[in-house]
């Protein structure tokens, strides 16, 4: 069995049974914090050893494993000795075709290493345009976008492996998210702009009620979900703390920064024009329906399994996201 690339030595007392795949993003940080709060060791798995060190270098319960997802041996080495995987691997926005490919490889490597359970952190994309005011797990998955179809394929591969007895599988779908240090969000530039005293760049329409999950709220849910045998073989949606408009978020954030909100709003036509020069903007055009007809999750199945879920109110979440941006600005100024 090959060892993971520059595998960090693991004291027997800290041998992890849980692996976070794609751990260096904000959702990974939230799950890691929840596991650490429960004194649970875990393996933080990612491509970049420097990124892993920056994210988890001071976390005594984290075992860092830099993996090589392009090879079966590199995957197996990263998963060696683990029992449960939580995968939240990100790909470039113009490379969504990799999601099904990576899922298939992950399942094969995990099964070869004796990993028994896998939880995928998913999105609303597979549902397509909402056909109900609130979307639960029984809502048809009829994606009309290429990204939604590829995310659906990713889900189908995983749940087919569960049905075949290859691995126990579960999916936790999240809405759009925001929070401290979150850079890829419809709301992220609002907090940066309020902290810097400039105009915020947002995508319109900005007066449609939308749902956002505060990222630090995700970790405790994932921790409890992977600790529950009845969670596997099923899929779940996790909603935010109600709905809010982009304009309302901006007004609250700028008010907290003691400034008048200033917004530069891009509509679909502007996104299409920007897409002529920016591949990410070009890819964002097909997902614009999420702003005009947002998916709002019904997470009754999740609360039925785990009980009441702690959700940070928008005012508190906005304040924490803004405080993080202000701290970043102060650090750069110093």
UniProtKB/TrEMBL annotation:
SUPFAM superfamilies reported in the protein's UniProt record: NAD(P)-binding Rossmann-fold domains (SSF51735)
Origin superkingdom: Bacteria
Domain NAD-dependent epimerase/dehydratase: 21-221
Name of the protein in its database record: NAD-dependent epimerase/dehydratase family protein
Gene3D superfamilies documented for this protein: NAD(P)-binding Rossmann-like Domain (3.40.50.720)
Coiled-coil residue spans: none
GO CC aspect terms: cytoplasm
Pfam families: Epimerase (PF01370)
Gene Ontology molecular-function annotations: aldehyde dehydrogenase (NAD+) activity
């Amino acid at each position: 069995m090959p060892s993971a690339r520059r595998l960090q030595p693991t004291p027997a007392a800290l041998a992890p049974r849980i692996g976070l795949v794609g751990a260096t993003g904000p959702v990974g940080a939230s799950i890691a914090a929840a596991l650490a709060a429960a004194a649970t060791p875990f393996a933080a798995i990612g491509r970049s050893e420097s990124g892993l060190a920056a994210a988890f270098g001071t976390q005594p319960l984290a075992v860092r494993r830099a993996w090589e997802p392009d090879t079966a041996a590199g995957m197996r080495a990263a998963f060696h000795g683990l029992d449960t995987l939580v995968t939240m691997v990100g790909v470039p926005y113009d490379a969504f075709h990799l999601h099904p490919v990576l899922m298939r490889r992950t399942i094969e490597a995990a099964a070869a290493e004796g990993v028994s359970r896998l939880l995928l952190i998913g999105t609303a994309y597979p549902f397509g345009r909402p056909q109900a005011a609130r979307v639960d797990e029984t809502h048809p998955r009829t994606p009309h976008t290429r990204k939604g179809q590829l995310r659906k394929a990713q889900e189908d591969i995983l749940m087919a492996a569960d049905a075949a007895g290859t691995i126990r599988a579960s999916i936790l779908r999240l809405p759009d998210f925001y929070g401290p240090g979150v850079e890829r969000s419809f709301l992220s530039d609002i907090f940066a702009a309020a902290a810097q005293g400039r105009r915020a760049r947002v995508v319109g329409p900005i007066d449609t009620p939308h749902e956002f999950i505060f990222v630090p709220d995700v970790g405790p849910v994932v921790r409890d979900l992977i600790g529950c045998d009845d969670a596997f073989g099923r899929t779940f949606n996790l909603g935010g703390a109600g709905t809010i408009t982009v304009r309302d978020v901006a007004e609250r954030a700028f008010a907290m920064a003691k400034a008048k909100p200033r917004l530069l709003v891009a509509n679909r036509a502007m996104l299409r024009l920007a897409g002529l020069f920016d591949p990410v903007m070009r890819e964002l055009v097909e997902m614009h329906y999420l702003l005009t007809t947002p998916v709002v999750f019904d997470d009754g199945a999740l609360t039925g399994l785990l009980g009441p879920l702690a959700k940070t109110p928008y005012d508190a979440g906005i304040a924490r996201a803004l405080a993080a941006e202000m701290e970043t600005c102060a650090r750069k100024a110093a």
